[in-house]
Amino acid sequence: MRPKTDSQPIPAAPSKREAWDGLTLFSTFFRIGLFTLGGGYAMIPIIEEEVVRKHKWIDGDLFVDLLAVAQSCPGVFAINISTFIGYKLGKTRAALLASLGTALPSFIIILLIALFFHRLMDVGWIAAMFRGIRPAVVALIAVPTFNMAKSAKITLANCWIPIVTALLIWMLGVNPIYIILAAAAAGLLYSMIIGPTDKTDNTDKDHTA
Questions:
Q1: Band of residue 186 on the pLDDT scale cut at 50, 70, 90
Q2: Would 77 disulfide with which of 40, 45, 133, 145, CB 3.0-4.6 Å?
Q3: Where are the domains of the chain?
């Protein structure tokens, strides 16, 4: 007589995070800093590809949370996000390696540009190359925006929040600092007042089911 088996499929085991080492961490962020054009936001898809998908050092949800913290903190976004990711992996040592790896290529490139900029821009094919890079940079910034919207669970019910925020900054000239403070206060109030109610309702539905 065959033993009774459960008809439900066995869930797949979650993928294990890859261990990191100092050389790999530094070289990864050095490569990110070297091939990122258009500022810190253009490097978001590259960081996500390397850190989340390739090396699996952190998961997607944590990556979105670190992006939010990095954007809310003062300073250069590229350094902020690399510092937070490094600190999450290995505290101060990893944070220093990731930050140095991100900043060093920019320092070297800016130094070279400062020395030879006028000569380079007089070369026709180099000027044309930079003109071609501009629209690609727009796409590099747009793609992670939509990906973050999905990860942040922005739906038709709450899509008014980023729309109103963009209009306040663009049309009325509201300082983004006030937007960040207001969003933090609203999130705190939601978690204190509405959040417990939602959890209770979901628990009641589970018991009823």
A1: confident
A2: 40
A3: 15-153, 154-209
